[in-house]
Every structure is written in structure tokens, then in C-alpha cells.
Amino acid sequence: MDPVHFSGKEVLEMAVKIEENGLKFYNEAGRATNSRELKELFETLADEEESHIETFNELRKLAGDTGNEGFDPYLQEAVDYLRALADTEVFTNSELGAQLAEKVTGEADALDYAIDMEKDSLLFYYELQKMIREKDRDVLEQLIEQEKDHVSKLRSLKKKLIGKAGR
């Protein structure tokens, strides 16, 4: 059985949705915090999410077809699984980012939510690695590196502000 193959364009459409919701979280959490450093980090991450959205939208235009060459129609359950994973991830509910920001009770909480959301994004992208066409893997690798950088920035600030490296 061949795995389901998503094109780079399809992956980018999912990534845009994830980044849009991350942007909402960082904007809302940034407005809610009193910590100057945390506010600045969230503003930076929100700017990066906006930049990712623009980049991903540009890449989508260049990605070409959304055809499923190599797609096995009997593996619809794999498509359903990936879409279910996307639907349950923190960033894919269009209002969940803002809702989570409202639940933040302090700096450590805000950082933990942000770290968890970035990790959820990584989980989604790692799962996609099994389902993307070989010719589109570079796009996905770029997404993964950007998300790993966000986790690193968040963990560094948490260590600095809270004195722990986080989970």
C-alpha cells in the first residue's frame, strides 16, 4: 500500500490555517501580558507568523497543481486521519487561539500554551512528512525548521523569566 501523497500546495493551505490561528493567539496573549519581554516576544512571533502566512501564500501560488499523483483512492482513511489531526490541533480552530489566550493566568502559563501549540504544529508537520510527495519535501522542511525555532525562542524566554527550561 502506498501512502497518501499531498502536494506542497495542499500542505501549505493547511500550514496557512495553522499560522493564522497562531497569529491570533500571539496577538491576544501579547495584549494580555504585563511582562515587557513576553509582550515583545509574542509581538515578534506574531510578526513571524504573519511573515510565514505571506511566504506560504506565495509558495502556494508557485506550488502548481494540487493533483494526487500516486494517490490510492482506497486510502481515504489516511486523508481522513490527517484532516482529523488538523482539526484537533490547537491552531486549526479559528477561534481557539484567541480563546486560549483568554485563559492565560500568568507568564509561565502563556509560555506553556505557546510552547504546546508550537509542538502541536510540529507534530502535524512531522505527520505530514509521511504523506507528502518527494518533490515537495523542501517546503515542509522549511516549515519544520521555522516551528522548531519558535519553540527554542519560547523555551529560552521561559528559562530566563521563570528560571526553568519548561517541559
Please, could you describe this protein's structure?
There is one protein chain. This protein is mainly alpha-helical and 167 residues long. It has one domain: Ferritin, core subunit, four-helix bundle (Ferritin, Up-down Bundle). It has helices spanning 8-32, 36-62, 76-88, 96-103, 107-129, 137-162. The longest helix has 27 residues, at 36-62. It starts with 7 loop residues before the first helix and ends in a 5-residue tail after the last helix. Mean pLDDT is 75; it is low at 65-74.
Give a quick rundown of the structure.
By secondary structure, this protein is mainly alpha-helical.
Task: Provide key terms for this protein.
167 residues; mainly alpha; Ferritin; 73% helix; elongated
Radius of gyration: 17 Å
What is the tally of beta strands?
A: 0
Number of helices: 6
CATH class: Mainly Alpha
By secondary-structure content and strand pairing, the structural class works out as mainly alpha
CATH topology: Ferritin
The quaternary organization reads as single chain
Order of helices and strands: HHHHHH
Distance between the termini: 37 Å
Tell me which CATH architecture applies here.
Up-down Bundle
Question: What layout of secondary structure does this protein have?
Answer:
Elements (H helix, E strand, L loop, with lengths): L7 H25 L3 H27 L13 H13 L7 H8 L3 H23 L7 H26 L5
Helix pairs in contact: 1-2, 1-4, 1-5, 1-6, 2-6, 5-6
